[in-house]
Automatic annotation (TrEMBL):
One of the protein's GO biological processes: heterophilic cell-cell adhesion via plasma membrane cell adhesion molecules
Topology within the bilayer: Single-pass type I membrane protein
Similarity field: Belongs to the integrin beta chain family.
Name listed for the protein in its UniProt record: Integrin beta
Compartment(s) of residence: Cell membrane
Organism of derivation: Microctonus hyperodae
Predominant subcellular localization, coarse grouping: membrane
Transmembrane regions listed in the UniProt entry: 739-761
Length: 811
């Protein structure tokens, strides 16, 4: 349960402290550090200790992020940079080995020296291998109150069996024995004189006077002597239920030399009782108030001498000593008290519990064997690191292809297997007490003596901070003789403050601080770009002379304005407190815009963008870009009526040397490309030309003539458009009319025409008359018979004939 909590706590710590802060924040945090030590205590920062006597310049920011400058020399002379970083030196690195009668080496490396930056994680590898025939010491601690008599017999037999059973596991096995009863005081023991002599019941023959704890047999390889010793150990008795086993456990654990515990071995302490135990505080019942001192108090005979002087140890004392001395306690108890001991075992690290039965040594041996195997079968790395130093263990354990996961415990391995632990060490802050800046961290497998010692030195201060450093100047001139110059800065004496200890008074007074802050919400002086100097801001000086901070609180600067074309304020303005003040003729946030003057086409009385667009940032944007184009929206390649009249004058001048542009044989302001040809194709019929942009103009001139030309306008954005004109070499003029000739010819022609008309009329009438006459004649001739007289009619005339002329007449 507790380990689970520890894990949760650890993961939480990692979350809150291990995450790398955003890079910008790191940079800022560095720059906020005002002393060399606090700079080095901040992750990834480095300090410049230059003073003007050593270097010809001093940086205004002394603490910066390591990678702020590609070439740190621009910030600080390299020799003056204090940039301590994590270094590890392996001091002892013997290979793993295990041979009998030599000290086995189960851990590699053995000694490391580590200088560690705060906040930096350092990883190293530790190898562990469980040695075969690793020394095992087993001390049997037995309750010899009379109730245990039935177990004593068994136990005496146990020794040999246990030794032979253990020799299967390790050939390097020792066995020892001790016994306990209880404190010889009321109410623990009956202090009646006869009871003090013989506290047991009548049926027990060998009954010794009561005692607290007695060490009976040194740890030895001789299992037979175990049997004799146990048999020789007399029973005794006490009064109350619980026994004084804790006194015995404590003595057995702390009297290492007397008992013969080997330093580099596994230590098993088998504690066998059938009763409950007394704990710290119970001694008061007998008037013993002195707490247990966890020291060894055995006399020559091996008897505990302070039984009546010191109280019983507490459970936590037992746990602590068990951890320290690598004791694995095995509680071997009968069923009826096993619950109590189960709970006790949970409180003592590395302990276990097993149930024994009467007349059953096999059970005890199995129990011990099992516990031993459990111990050897797993390895758990423990360490003595305390906050703020944290160690994390990562391992694949035995799974060669497996994942490296965070764990400090591996299970299921055998002798000879090698396990690698990746150990990550990190200190989150400097301990407040400088004594703790150097620590000895010990990492070891639980229950074993082998340790990896890390001589850890936390990098918490700068060498130049120490008054014996060669660059340390006491009462320096630079510090107004009121402070010490160290690591490049002044450490002012009491009553003075400021960068050069010029200000007198008390810096911590809040009003002084307030004068350097624009508002109460600010939590740093001078907007973080200067130092508060006796209540006013002294802005920091940039390395780049073209950049400076200004303003009462250094809140302004002249280098963080918008850029245009890679130039501050487009090169057309001054950067004032973060905004661009543009030069006349320029506008825009970054002064990148010309004003409207560049939108007027050349010439007089022109309109902005030729009236066909708007001026935006000094450039014309044409209203209808299908029609209008060109830098001033002056072009409309498809608007021929516009171009015909525009081009007309120059064309006329060039081709015919007439027109308003024609001055003294030259054409004024005519730049078009004009070619004269005999005859132009009419583009209307020439589709290809039309597609190329050719248009035809037919324009009249002032003197009544007219001419034709063909043009094409080429315009590239920004340039003046260029016109290509082809003109017909001849004007079309009406011929001059001679008035006299015209008049004569008119008269003549009129006369002739009149004459002709008369003639024609005459002829027509003559022909008509003749035809009429002929017709009359014909009709007359034909109408002969029709002229027969009406018989009724009597001619009024009378005809008389000349008789001489009769032959020509028929009647
Ligand atoms: C500072 O130390 C770090 C880590 O050792 C190194 O990478 C860096 O180059 C050092 N910088 C300077 C300026 O010495
Ligand atoms: C240390 O090891 C852990 C686990 O393998 C890894 O997450 C971490 O990034 C390592 N740290 C360094 C500085 O290599
Ligand atoms: C047990 O060890 C102690 C200390 O090492 C020694 O003085 C004593 O003689 C030993 N006892 C026996 C019986 O070997
Ligand atoms: C213990 O068991 C053995 C046989 O295993 C038996 O002979 C002996 O009488 C038993 N002793 C007791 C006290 O029960
Ligand atoms: C400055 O003020 C603080 C608290 O206001 C006080 O503890 C300290 O002694 C003062 N120092 C001097 C030199 O007046
Ligand atoms: C910023 O101010 C400094 C000092 O007044 C000056 O030399 C520099 O030219 C200024 N830079 C700009 C971009 O105005
Ligand atoms: C910084 O520049 C501003 C304007 O460019 C100027 O007013 C100010 O005096 C300068 N400050 C320093 C310390 O040169
Ligand atoms: C920019 O600064 C220069 C020098 O300080 C000054 O002569 C000029 O008038 C300033 N221009 C504007 C637009 O403020
Ligand atoms: C430039 O011309 C635009 C219209 O094209 C007008 O809105 C703007 O106010 C003018 N800017 C200046 C500085 O004259
Ligand atoms: C016209 O040209 C002639 C010579 O080419 C020159 O002498 C005369 O001054 C010019 N007149 C004008 C008004 O340019």
């Amino acid at each position: 349960m507790s380990s689970k909590w520890c894990f949760i706590l650890l993961s939480f710590l990692n979350l809150s402290l291990g995450c790398n802060a955003d890079y910008e924040t790191v940079k800022k945090i560095c720059e906020e550090q005002k002393t060399c030590s606090s700079c080095l205590q901040t992750q990834t920062c480095m300090w410049c200790a230059a003073t003007s006597s050593i270097a010809n310049y001093e940086p205004s920011i002394r603490c910066v992020a390591r990678d702020k400058y590609k070439d740190p020399n621009v910030w600080c002379p390299v020799s003056q940079i204090i940039n301590d970083s994590t270094v590890m030196i392996v001091k002892e690195n013997l290979p793993l080995f295990a041979t009998k009668n030599t000290t086995p080496m189960q851990i590699q490396p053995q000694v490391l020296r580590l200088r560690l930056r705060i906040g930096e994680e350092y990883n190293f590898t530790l190898k562990y291998s469980s040695a075969e025939d690793y020394p095992v010491d087993l001390y049997y601690l037995m309750d010899l109150s009379s109730s245990m008599s039935q177990y004593r017999e068994d136990l005496s037999e146990l020794g040999v069996d246990l030794a032979s059973a253990m020799r299967h596991l390790t050939r390097n096995f020792r066995l020892g024995f001790g016994s306990f009863v209880d404190k010889v005081e009321l109410p623990m023991t009956d202090t009646l004189p006869e009871k003090l002599k013989k506290p047991c019941n009548e049926d027990i023959v060998d009954c010794a006077p009561p005692y607290g704890y007695k060490h009976q047999m040194n740890l030895t390889e001789d299992a037979d002597s175990f049997k004799t010793n146990v048999q020789a150990a007399p029973l005794s008795g006490n009064l109350d239920g619980p026994e004084g086993g804790f006194d015995a456990i404590m003595q057995a654990m702390v009297c290492t030399e007397r008992i013969g515990w080997r330093k580099d071995g596994r230590h098993l302490l088998v504690f066998s009782t059938d009763a409950n135990f007394h704990v710290a505080g119970d001694g008061r019942l007998a008037g013993i108030i002195e707490p247990n001192d966890c020291e060894c108090h055995l006399d020559k005979e091996g008897t505990y001498t302070h039984s009546s002087l010191l109280d019983y140890p507490s459970i936590s004392q037992i746990n602590r000593i068990a951890l320290k001395n690598n004791m694995n306690i095995i509680f071997a108890v009968p069923q009826d008290v096993s619950n109590t001991y189960q709970r006790l075992s949970e409180c003592i690290s590395g302990s276990a519990i097993g149930v024994i039965k009467k007349n059953d040594t096999v059970n005890v041996i199995n129990l011990i064997q099992k516990e031993y195997e459990k111990l050897v079968d797993k390895v758990k790395m423990i360490d003595n690191a305390k906050k703020p130093i944290t160690l994390r263990y990562f391992s694949k354990c035995l799974d060669k292809k497996g994942e490296v996961i965070e764990r400090s415990e591996c299970q299921g391995f055998h002798f000879g297997d090698i396990i690698q632990f990746e150990i990550s060490i990190k200190a989150t802050e400097c301990p407040t007490n400088p004594e703790n800046w150097q620590q000895l961290i010990e990492i070891k497998p639980q229950g074993l003596e082998d340790t990896l010692k890390i001589e850890l030195e936390l990098i918490c201060d700068c060498p130049c901070d120490k008054s014996d450093h060669k660059a340390y100047v006491i009462k320096s001139e630079k510090c107004n003789y009121q402070g010490d110059l160290n690591c490049g800065i002044c450490k002012c004496n009491d009553g003075f403050y400021g960068k050069h200890c010029i200000c007198s008074g008390n810096e911590t007074q809040s009003n002084v601080k307030d004068d350097c802050r624009a508002s109460d919400n600010d939590n740093s002086d001078c907007s973080n770009h200067g130092t508060c100097q006796c209540g006013s801001c002294e802005c920091e000086i940039r390395e780049n002379p073209a950049e400076n901070f200004s303003g009462k609180y250094c809140e302004c600067n002249n280098f963080s304005c918008l850029r245009d074309n890679d130039q501050l304020c487009g090169g057309h303005g001054n950067c004032t407190c973060g905004t661009c003040v543009c030069m006349p003729g320029w506008s825009g946030l970054s002064c990148g815009c010309h004003d409207n003057s560049t939108c007027f086409p050349p010439g007089d009385n022109t309109k902005i963008c030729s009236g066909h667009g708007t001026c935006d940032c000094g450039k014309c944007h044409c209203d209808n870009d299908v029609f209008y184009s060109g830098g001033y929206c002056q072009d409309c390649p498809t608007c021929s009526e516009v171009h015909c009249s525009k081009l007309k004058e120059c064309v006329e001048c060039y081709a015919f040397n007439t027109g308003s542009r024609s001055k003294n044989g030259t054409c004024e302001r005519c730049y078009d490309d004009i070619e004269i040809v005999a005859k132009i194709d009419k583009v209307d019929v020439n589709e290809a030309d039309y597609q190329l942009g050719y248009r035809v103009c037919h324009v009249p001139t002032d003197n009544g003539c007219s001419f034709d030309f063909k043009y094409r306008i080429e315009s590239h954005r920004g340039d003046m458009p260029k016109s290509y004109v082809t003109v017909e070499e001849n004007k079309k003029c009406p011929k001059a009319i001679p008035i006299f000739t015209v008049a004569i010819s008119v008269i003549v022609s009129t006369v002739i025409i009149g004459f002709l008309i008369l003639l024609i009329w005459k002829i027509v009438t003559m022909v008509h008359d003749q035809r009429e006459y002929a017709k009359f004649e014909r009709e007359r001739a034909m109408a002969k018979w029709e002229r027969g007289d009406n018989p009724l009619h009597k001619q009024a005339t009378t005809t008389f004939s000349n008789p001489t002329f009769t032959e020509s007449r028929q009647n």
